[in-house]
Write a structure and sequence with these properties.
Pfam families: Acetyltransf_17 (PF17668), Acetyltransf_9 (PF13527), SCP2_2 (PF13530). It comes from Neobacillus piezotolerans. The chain is an alpha+beta fold. It has 3 domains: 114 residues, Gcn5-related N-acetyltransferase (GNAT) (Aminopeptidase); 158 residues, Gcn5-related N-acetyltransferase (GNAT) (Aminopeptidase, 3-Layer(aba) Sandwich); 99 residues, SCP2 sterol-binding domain (Nonspecific Lipid-transfer Protein, Chain A), CATH 3.30.1050.10. Helix content is 27%, strand content 33%. The chain has 11 helices and 21 strands. The two termini are 31 Å apart.
Amino acid sequence: MESTIRKLAGDEFLDFAYIAIQAFPANKENTPEYKQKLAANLRRIHEESGTIEFYGLFRDRKLLGGMRLHTFEMNLFGKIVPAGGVGLVAVDLLHKKEKVAKELIGHFIRYSREKGASMALLYPFRPDFYKKMGFGYGTKMNQYRIRPDSFPSNGSKEGLAVLGEADKEKIRECYNRYAKKTHGMILKNGFDMDALFKNPDNRVLGAFNGEELNGYIVYGFEQVDKQNFLRNNLVIREFIYETPDALTSIAKFLNSQSDQIERIVLNTQDDGLEYMLGDARNGSEYLIPSVFHETNRAGVGLMYKVIDFNKVIVDLEGRTFNNVTANFTMVVHDSFESGAPAKISFRIEDGKLLKGKAEDCEVEIEMDIADFSSLMAGSVDFGKLHRYGRLKLSRPEFAPLMEQAFRVNEKPFCTTPF
C-alpha cells in the first residue's frame, strides 16, 4: 500500500500523541487528559519554534507513525553549516515491522538534503537499528558521579550569580560563543532559551567576568533514597564554560555543596575529567583488573550520516587534513538508499579537502556509509577503522598517509538533546 508523508495538522496531533504514548510509555500517562496536553504541546512547538516540524506517515488516510524534524545550525570543524535532526520517531504498535520507520527516515534524509544539509543526526532507540540505515557513531557520552569535595576549591565565587529569565540573552550569547569555537556543537535560538525556563526543575548558575557571562550550569536534584528526603544528588543538565576562571568558579560552587549533596552527576563527552578532580571514582567501588578504579560509565548515542557527498566537501572547508596532499576515491556502500556503492573522488591539497578526479586516483578506499560518516565527523580514527577491518585499501602502503590526513585533535561535542 502506498504511503503519504506530510506535515501534521489539526486533530492529527492527537492521533500522533496516542502513537507516541504507546511507543514510548515511560513517564507518560495513558489518559485522555495527558493525550490532549501532549498533543497541544507538540502542535505549539510545530507552530512556534521556526526550526521544528512534525510529519506523519499515512496509508489509506490512516496515521501509522510520525516524527519530529529539526533544522540545525551546527559547527563542523569551525564552519557553521545546516544540519538535519530527527526525534520522536514513533510507529503505531499495530503496524510494527511494516517498514513505517524506514520510510519515515528516508523522508527525513530527503527533507534534510532539501534544507541544504550535508549531515543528518539522530539519537537512536537502538544503535544497531540505525547503523543498518547508515548512521555512524559520534563521540561517547561519559557519566561521572563525583563527590562534591572532589571538585577543586581554588576558584573565586565573586562572579557567580543565580540566573533567571531576564538573563536568557546572556546565556544564549555565552553558549553560542562556545558553540562557534567547538566542533560538533549546535547553536541555540530564542525558542531553545524559552524552553530552558519553562522547566520548573531547572536552576541556572552563571559565572560573570564583569558584565559578560563566561560560563553557566543548568542543574536540578534527584533523591537518592525515597525513604530519606535529606539524601540528594545534584544533576548537571548543561555545563558551558569559556574560560578556566569560569570553570574554577563553578567548580568551587559545586565543592561547597558537600554538606548536603552526596554526588554531582555530570554527563559529558569530555573523557579526561579525572585530571581536574581530587577523587574521580564514581562510588561503585568496582575494580577493573588488575587495579583500575571505576570513574565513569560511557555509552554511544548521537549518530551522524553524510547525506550529500558533494555538499560535505564544501561544509568541511574548516577541517584541516594535516598538510597532506593525496588523491583518492572513496567507494561507499549504503544499502539503505542504494544497491550500488557510490564512488566519490577526493583531493587533499596541502591539508585542504577538494573534489577530485577519478583519473588522478592514487588509492581506493572502500567502506560502509556509517563508518564513512563517523570518519568525516571526526569521531573515529582512520587507523582504527583500518585495523578493525572496517575499510579496505587498494594499496595498503597508503595507510599511514591516510591516517595522518584524517587525524583530529578534537572529536565532535554536542550538548543538544532532541
